[in-house]
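Quiz preparation item.
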């Protein structure tokens, strides 16, 4: 684990601190400033001076391999484990929820978020997601809902209460009644295997993928202060930029693959144009019919996908 104060880095590991293991999968900070750290050897707390470690030998934690931790409004800890379900810790007492004693669909808990009403949203390896309001469980999976895959890596809740779910087959949003799925086939998504989702104060979702880099998405348009960096600009260039009537997408001559398809994605995430069946190093696109604004150009070449920003002017 490391901290950075804009000047210096401080690294904490199992040799120089009370951290019990160098595998760190999740961190939250409570309202006292104490850090709660999930590791492969239990969960640790660190208040800046003192360390405490909770494991299967000294506490009610059911599994030492802890995957994710979240805090509810009362400061209680909810801890997802690798093989033994979900643990609740109020600072004194422990409660464990697993497939045998609750409605949780899988004991492998990889994602966890708590909404403003206190409902826990729990993502699992093979069982989809479950919501738990303290009494009732509801399970959503790819068979009974539009969740695209049962393997859930990340869950985030926006300020409207919409649940954003990262899976191995794209990202889904759920407003309590309907689902929307975003993937590489229907949007500007760079890769279907979503590892992490976080939401900033503007409501922009920042999505980390396993092999497609990172994407920023805001259904209301990305604010101007959010800067989108082009992906691997030395490989793919889009010009002129800004463009008026046409734009050319070109891939480096040094790169062995040719462009096979190109998509234009609006900043709202809608695919507005797709050209496929290509086999060129230069592709010219007529954009005269498109409204002025900011777009993403998604270029496919070999097994790679490149994202570039494009401004269209009237």
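Solution:
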């Amino acid at each position: 684990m490391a901290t950075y104060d804009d000047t210096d880095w401080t690294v904490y590991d199992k040799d120089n601190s009370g951290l019990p293991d160098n595998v760190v999968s999740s961190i939250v900070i409570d309202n006292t400033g104490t850090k709660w750290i999930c590791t492969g050897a239990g969960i640790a707390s660190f208040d800046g001076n003192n360390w405490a470690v909770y494991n299967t030998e000294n506490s009610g934690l059911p599994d030492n391999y802890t995957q994710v931790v979240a805090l509810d409004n009362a400061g209680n800890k909810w801890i997802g484990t690798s093989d033994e379900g979900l643990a609740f810790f109020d600072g004194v007492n422990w409660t464990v929820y697993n497939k045998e004693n609750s409605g949780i669909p899988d004991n492998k808990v990889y994602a966890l978020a708590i909404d403003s009403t206190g409902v826990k949203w729990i993502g699992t390896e093979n069982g989809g997601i479950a919501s738990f309001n303290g009494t009732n469980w509801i399970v959503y999976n790819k068979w009974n809902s539009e969740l695209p895959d049962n393997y859930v890596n990340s869950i985030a809740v926006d300020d409207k209460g919409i649940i954003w779910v990262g899976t191995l087959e794209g990202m889904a949003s759920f407003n309590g009644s309907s689902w929307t799925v975003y993937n590489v086939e229907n949007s500007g998504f760079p890769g279907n295997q979503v590892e992490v989702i976080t939401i900033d104060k503007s409501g922009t979702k920042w999505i980390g993928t396993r092999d497609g880099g990172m994407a920023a998405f805001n259904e209301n348009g990305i604010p101007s202060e959010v800067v989108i960096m082009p992906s691997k600009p030395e490989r793919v260039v889009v010009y002129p930029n800004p463009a008026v009537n046409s734009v050319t997408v070109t891939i480096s001559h040094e790169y062995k693959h040719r462009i096979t398809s190109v998509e234009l994605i609006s900043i709202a995430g809608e695919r507005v144009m797709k050209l496929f069946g290509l086999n060129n190093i230069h592709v010219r696109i007529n954009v005269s019919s498109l409204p002025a604004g900011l777009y993403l150009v998604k270029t496919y070449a070999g097994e790679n996908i490149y994202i570039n920003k494009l401004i269209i002017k009237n």
